[in-house]
Amino acid sequence: MIDILGFALIMVGIGFFAAGSIGLLRLPDLYSRLHALTKADNLGLGMLCAGLALIDGSAANAAKLFLVWLLVMAASATAAHMMAQHTLRQDIE
Amino acid sequence: MHAPLLQLLDVLLAVLALALGWAAVSSRDLKRSVVFFIAFGLLLAIVWARLGAPDLALAEAAIGAGLSGALLLSALRDEPETEAGSDLMQGPLATLISVLCLALTAVFAWVLWQTLGSADSARMADRILEELPGTGVSNPVTAVLLNFRAYDTLLELAVLLAAVLGITALGPARPSFRAAGALFDGLVRWLVPLLILTAGYLLWAGAHAPGGAFQAGAMLAAAAVMLRLGGRAGGGPPQPRVMRSVLASGIAAFLLVGIITMVSGKAFLEYPQAWSGTLILFIETAAMIAIAATLALAYIGGRPADWESEVVTSAVTKTRERR
Amino acid sequence: MTVDATSMLLVAVVLLLLTLLTGLARTIIGPSLQDRMLSVQLLGTGGVALLLLMAALFRASALIDVALVLALLAAVAAAALTRRGENDD
Q1: ipTM of the modeled complex
Q2: Which regions in chain A score pLDDT beneath 70?
Q3: B-chain residues within 8 Å CB-CB of A81?
Q4: Rg of chain C over CA atoms, in angstroms?
């Protein structure tokens, strides 16, 4: 039962990754593409980590998975902001 | 049920690796090549993970994807000309090089075919696992690197030292960066301690789990790169007055252990059984620091400030002004 | 772990890899360097996801450490791209 829920979460997570990929390809400019990326980082990875934590079962691994998700979110949020600022500066020049 | 899926995964990874590698090498635009190379590094880390080599995946993720990416991107910014034009790669010389590369590939393919196809061969891995309990560590990779083939690792560290000579011959270091704003400063503030902590963890875990000196050194170097990018004055590699000692510490530790073992009657680098674990940890710690300093030096791309004495610096400046 | 679980995880890995492959198209098309770096960032996060899935698939919790390392280094490349030097305007 828990396994099925875990797999469902993983599939939803991959769905968000797909949304991020498609957004990266279809959206018109860099700023909107950044939005697509963060969907993959937050919800995509989050659902995936939650599903894997359910399947795996051990508390230590679940804690590690949670930590990985937090790190990826924090790092990519900062990176997205810096890229947006950099591009804005270049567009203004 | 899952064998064909596994094969599909392998085929996808192999095709993607080849495609990215080809794209990185063959692209005319340097910017595109750099990006493809970083993507290739990332993919390679995943390939190592698939092949069941977590130590290699760790090293590839840290060095191939992270540090190489930062290095290449910084080099790209220094380079105004981004057209990878090259007269060398045309004409008869190019044909000769292509033929030689193809011949080499054929030789490798034949060797691989012979070794993988032969049945009943005594595998080295079995022998290593047999001898593992006496090495002082329980991770076979660390045992090979630091015990069975410690001499090779010593020479690798010597090669890194030679690379330092090459880097310092390039000229003065890349100029440092502006003081960071609140956002990036915040990132540096939590990322650098985490990187240092992870480096310590990887060094310690290298004895019984995937990890080791090279991976830990790469993490420390990434911390140095982040400090440098954060614009802190003099951030990045160690201070010049300790830099030389730090760079040589890896080899120094090896030689110290080797000389001590020789003096106490054994062969060079033949660890006494009871002390193996401790000696390996000692050498790995020194090697980690040396590797981190070398990689950080590679990132800043030249001699750091105050590297030479005043006399040499003024002489060099006068020579440049004369031109 | 049942055979079903292994197959499901494998399906997840293959699907994720195909998704990332389509995201890589931006590396070829993307007009500017930043666009190409965006797709590398997606590959980075996707790589973390793939490593976590493989950790469960191959029962190798060391791969979670690899994912941790990759997550930590994700920002370094983006920072190297966007940070301004002292002498830049």
Answers
A1: 0.92
A2: none
A3: 183
A4: 16
